[in-house]
Amino acid sequence: MSNRPLATAGRAIPLLRAGLIAGIVIAAVAYPVVAFTGLGAKATAHATEHKTRLLTKALPAETSYLYLPDGKTVLTMFYEEYRQYTKLSDMSPYIQQAIVAAEDSRFYQHHGVDPKGVVRAFVANARSSGVSQGASTLTMQYVRMALRDSATTPKEVQEATQQTSLRKIKEMRLALDLEKELSKEEIIERYLNSAYFGHRAYGIYAASEIFFSKTPKDLTPVEAATLAGLVKSPSQYDPATSDQKDATARRNYVLDRMTQLGYLSPDAAASAKAEPIRLKLTDPPNDCAAVPKKYNSWGFICDYLKNWWSAQPAFGANRLERMDKLRRGGYRIVLGIDPKIQEAAEKNLGAGTGSPFANGIVVSEPGTGRVKAMAVNRTYSLDLNENPQSSNPEAGPNVKANYPNTVAPLLGGGDLPGYQAGSTFKMFPMLAALNAGMPLSTSFNAPYRYQSKVFDGWAPSNASGAMSGLQTMWSGFGKSVNTYFVWLEEQIGAEAGVRLAEQLGLRWRTDVDRDQASPEKVKKWGAFTLGVSDATPLEMANAYAAIAADGRYCEAMPVQAIYNRDGTPTTYTTASGITREVAKPRCRQVVSADAARAATDAARCPTGDTPARGSCGGWSTADSVRGTVGRPVAGKTGTTDSTRSAWFVGYTPELAAASFISDPDNPFNAVGDGQSQIPISAVAETLRDALKGKPTRQFTPPSDAIVG
């Protein structure tokens, strides 16, 4: 069926240019200004020509969708205006007909401005001594909506919506010009995608889903007339209120108009009017707090995605612009999390949600930087009412603890500094030494206590006397010998380890850490190798993943794909002018492959694995890991003074995982030795479960030159 009125289908009435000018003059009288000559004809013509070009390209804000890794299941959405752009061919003809009947019955006859409507408005306004009738065509209404939606400043929004005669006449001029550039079908398609229908429904797709839980293609005449009737006054004619009297009357008016225009037969209209308005309301989710309950733990992943997005220059010059793009840009975002690995990570956490100690794990993929799992023993929720008081004695009496509910980014990717990572930091000076040409066999007779000649007499000691004696990188790393690594740090300079950690993605988020890492003080930061700096599981998993990838560091990446509203991959342009997809891995070689392989050979010692070339010295700090994982594995334990926090970072050729346990509210609330095994088990069991059924891959041994 044609959407044009039957009485005029195929013979739209052309308007003479003189008639249009006359209509504008009448409009000037109907909406008084000081004088028509005050419009500034030349300036107006120039401005409208520019705006017309913009309006032909302008698209309304559109909802962005966040998908699970299958690319089909929606985890949540991000929007300011819930809208999904829909082609006219995907809309029921009834909604097209109903909107013409409700808002502009002469739509297919005029050229953007309807002189008859202007005359009617003039008469009505003259009688009321004010502006009681508007004479806006669908095209003029679309112009107003497009100007509002494309506004970038409050002033532009005001100019697009203010009730003035000057705005009305500019609107007419733009409508006339726009109809020379766009067809009637294009205009009505854009109109139906821009109009507000109430209940946060912007555009016909959202309106169809929110009010009737269906797509626009399936709308019936009754439903179409109901929705078309809302545009005039979404609040007054809202059918979701307890009293549907006004909504029904408005719907019936639209059905009558559809009959008068030949869209519906009298019998069909009478039958439709006899039906009650039957709603099937849907409340579309918005943002991470609306993640479905069955995917509650993915709320933390959603938050990480948002924090990552806000740091990407591809989406704007600053955080505000980037988040605006997320909520208005109509992106399709597919997470890179592996559901199997995520399930394993959640299952293998060693502390419950009721523990004040946060136990979390992040799994990263070497060679891509894609985050494959993020799990923490917390419930993702904004409701902190049932949380106990914070364990931090310096917190106020009304400050809640972070458990069992929180949305804090405890795993990294946000603005929290993290947790002291202990001896897991020994990897950085060792890797720097290897990359500088020092061999794995570099030996030192490590005493129980070592007084540094470089770090102003600082005298650290080992955790036990059993660590004393002649050590190499293999045995020193396997037993976590503090004095060996302070000595090694002296040989290469503390700055080498610090700068390498930065190249591997670590950031200094506390005033103390930033001060120690500054050019003025970094050479004296001897305690760096003992892990006194804060770090996050996300950073540590990604840094160790670079070692598993033969020294190739890849930025942490929460997504596997991002698509624009037109279905094309989202791209950005690098500083060198190269166009790349935003979701593609961003990798660079940080250390030589041989240095990374040598570090891995030493890192097999803490796990109870057997290195390819050297000796671990008889014992190690996490010798159960190799047996649990059941395949070659490397890693490092880490504890801080009085075991205030405990860590383990482990990796195979396929995956790297970092786990911690600590009190985020109060770092002085010691975890204790009894819980230091929890991160070790979490990583080992997660790697085991994640790789179950996959072929066993071997680490590449280091060369003879670097073994020494």
Automatic annotation (TrEMBL):
InterPro entries: Beta-lactam/transpept-like, Glyco_trans_51, Glycosyltr_51/Transpeptidase, Lysozyme-like_dom_sf, PBP_transglycosylase, PCN-bd_Tpept. The chain crosses the membrane at residues 12-34. Keywords: Carboxypeptidase, Glycosyltransferase, Hydrolase, Membrane, Multifunctional enzyme, Protease, Transferase, Transmembrane, Transmembrane helix. This is Transglycosylase domain-containing protein. Residues 361-665 form the Penicillin-binding protein transpeptidase domain. It catalyses: [GlcNAc-(1->4)-Mur2Ac(oyl-L-Ala-gamma-D-Glu-L-Lys-D-Ala-D-Ala)](n)-di-trans,octa-cis-undecaprenyl diphosphate + beta-D-GlcNAc-(1->4)-Mur2Ac(oyl-L-Ala-gamma-D-Glu-L-Lys-D-Ala-D-Ala)-di-trans,octa-cis-undecaprenyl diphosphate = [GlcNAc-(1->4)-Mur2Ac(oyl-L-Ala-gamma-D-Glu-L-Lys-D-Ala-D-Ala)](n+1)-di-trans,octa-cis-undecaprenyl diphosphate + di-trans,octa-cis-undecaprenyl diphosphate + H(+); Preferential cleavage: (Ac)2-L-Lys-D-Ala-|-D-Ala. Also transpeptidation of peptidyl-alanyl moieties that are N-acyl substituents of D-alanine. It comes from Micromonospora globbae. Residues 74-258 form the Glycosyl transferase family domain.
